[in-house]
Amino acid sequence: MMTTDIQDGLQELDSLLSHADWQLADEVTFQIMLAVSDRRDAGWLDQSAIANFPCATLHQLDQRWLFYSSGRFGFSTQLHIYREAAERSSFEFSRQAGWVMNLWQPIGFFNFYHWLNFSLDAPQGHLPALWFWEMPWYRSWLIGGFGTGRGGGFGDPSLFDALMLRLERCQSI
After folding, report:
1. Which of 80, 130, 150, 153 fits 143 for a cystine, CB–CB 3.0-4.6 Å?
2. What pLDDT is stored for residue 93 in this prediction?
3. What is the mean pLDDT of residues 98-117?
């Protein structure tokens, strides 16, 4: 992705976040992530793309989400919750962030993306989320989804774990 494209995307993100348009901001965040990772054609992020995600862009995205949500949303907020939740179970973050529908305890299925709460009333760490939801239909089927992303599927923490590891490594830079 060209530097000017990144800057344009970040300016658009600033505008959306400043107007509390959380869902569109989430979509723009995902588009920036795809472009920076050279995954626009694929339309989703895999573990390799996350592992090689540029730290500078990750920090820029995170700082914007943190600033405009007063620390409620952002990758750093997710990392903080993830660290605490990991002591109990790998799926606990998803429950705390409101990403899971609790139909039967202790089993939970991921919400459909359009069921997420795109307001400041959402649980802490709820957004950004689209980067985690988007996946090809066949991967969705493999985790029990309906071919539309994570919705209705079981937990597959590998992608989220990859981003949390990348964020930890980027924080030390």
Report:
1. 153
2. 85
3. 78
